[in-house]
Design brief:
Blueprint lengths: L1 E3 L21 H14 L10 E5 L9 E4 L5 E4 L13 H11 L5 H16 L2 H7 L4 H8 L6 H17 L3 H18 L5 H19 L13 H5 L3
Antiparallel strand pairs: 1-2, 2-3, 3-4
Length: 231
């Protein structure tokens, strides 16, 4: 495990000094990103601390974890370094997300990551792939919106549609979400993703009982149609 702290020398200006993507050093990229956040005096006192872990392996897939300031933890594995230059891969999308959020605070970036966790959880990312939207388009589109009541309502509507197709799935998902939230709380983990899942599912159940035939607002800017037409 490698601990990098805020006493490290800050690299000269950000992404233009990164190595070419074909030999992308993800560790250096992440460290430079968080050091730039320290310059902006972000909220947390441990802003400069990033923890990297690599799991021992004699061959691919090679698994690594990075724990970011504030406690968020991400893991990924790729078979070749070329995947880092491919925006259709997870590490390529993460690279693009870092680049496009260099001017934002850590909390703004963390919120965007939570949005994409939720989109993956409720099946929206899969639906977007089927419409041939690229990951860059999805990231650029959702970067415009905050995780607010409007977005929660939109995601709740997705689950109402799922409930119509598979009665009982909402209650099942809510029970699972409550269990995950409780386990994460006891483990001292960051809770935003788990809490948002609970809120969205609870909202969906409330809407079902209050309005047996809910429908999407005609001006819903977060619809798949709006995204597919966004360029």
């Amino acid at each position: 495990m490698l601990h990098l702290n805020s006493n490290c020398h800050i690299a000269e200006s950000s992404l233009k000094h990164l190595v070419p993507a074909s030999i992308l050093n993800v560790v250096s990229m992440l460290q430079e990103f968080w050091e730039s956040k320290q310059q902006q005096r972000a909220t947390f006192s441990s802003e400069g601390l990033v923890v990297y872990e690599s799991m021992p392996s004699s061959g691919p897939p090679f698994v690594s974890y990075v724990t970011l300031p504030g406690g968020s933890c991400f893991g990924n594995f790729q078979g070749t370094l070329d995947d880092a230059d491919d925006p259709s891969t997870s590490v390529g999308a993460y690279h693009y997300m870092l680049e496009s959020n260099m001017g934002k605070t850590m909390l703004e970036f963390q919120e965007l990551m939570t949005v994409f966790q939720l989109l993956h959880w409720n099946g929206s990312l899969k639906a977007l792939r089927e419409t041939k939207c690229s990951r860059q388009e999805v990231i650029s589109y959702y970067s415009q919106y905050s995780l607010d009541e409007k977005m929660r309502s939109h995601m709740a509507l997705d689950w109402i549609m799922k409930e119509r197709e598979s009665p009982g799935i909402l209650s099942q998902e809510l029970r699972a979400a409550l269990g995950e939230l409780e386990e994460a709380r006891k483990a001292g983990q960051e809770l935003r993703f788990y809490k948002e899942k609970k809120e969205i599912l609870s909202l969906a159940l409330t809407q079902i009982y209050s309005d047996p035939d809910p429908s999407s607002p005609s001006d819903d800017q977060l619809s798949l149609t709006a995204l597919c037409g966004y360029h």
